[in-house]
Write a structure and sequence with these properties.
mainly beta, single chain, about 325 residues, 24 strands, five-stranded antiparallel β-sheet, six-stranded mixed β-sheet
Amino acid sequence: MVAISEQTATFPLEITRVETTDVALGGNEVNVPNKQFKQIADRTAFLKAKVDNLTDASAQAVDTISVASIAQGRLGVVSGDAIGLGTSSSFYYTPYKGDYIGIYDNTAGKWVARQFSEISQDISGLGAPAVFDVFARWNGAAVVMDRDPWASSGAGSSSRGYSMTQRNGVWVRSSDNARYLGSFCTFTAGQVEISDTSVGVWNVDNQVLRNCFSIDESTYSYNNAAFRFSNNNAGSRVNVVNGLPGQIITVSARVIVEVNPGSTYIAIAENNNFNTNSQGQLRGGGIGTVISQRGFDVPIGRNFYQLIESAVSGSSTFTNPITDVLYPS
């Protein structure tokens, strides 16, 4: 038995009606009834081909996005511990949720899932303060890391000297599609730090919240209406680094104050910006804990946060000023 042929190039616009004068003649697809069967078969084949093509394209798109989204490691400062605290002259990309990462293959024109072991880089010769980006790429045998310095690393004014772009929703270096892993900052020459007071590493993927705080365990007096950093001490701050726009955080500050008489005000500085919104205050004398809290849209690059204080008339005594930052890293 011979099957009716099918074609997918065109969609038959009409199905011929069988008339009373038509004579059924088999053996070909020109006469009824095979002519009508042929037209229906061609329509079906045409539509199936379109569905198949759509399914293949959708499957490829899903596969691309799935592989591109794989990033199972974290940048950190402790070998073998992807979320460890410490100060180190090396930084690491350590398996965290697994040991695979999606790397873009420029030759094949697609994302490829690559297995990796912990990767490290020595930074003992780097100056400070300095911000760097970290990228992952495939060198033909293994996943390796590159670092690129930023053009400037000023507090609140850091800037890159090159471009990044997004490929399938993943940030890559524009020049070679190396995958952006995150950024780090040397607050001290030759070292990167993740501690209670400093978050020197920022990850694009698999972020964890760091509860950072800086406390000046001292008692001191200040009697001036001009705002200044707490205890006029630049060391009493929380240092952070941020790789991409859109990082929103909440910062709080508190200090025990005794005023006799007069008024005391505190707020939170972002870098050298003495924005006195969300002031805490103790007015008219007395003793108490003064608190300030506000949200910040963190600038990219190097930043710091610190309690600032002001005293209007009278005598103000401050004890144990604290700045708290809950920071994703």
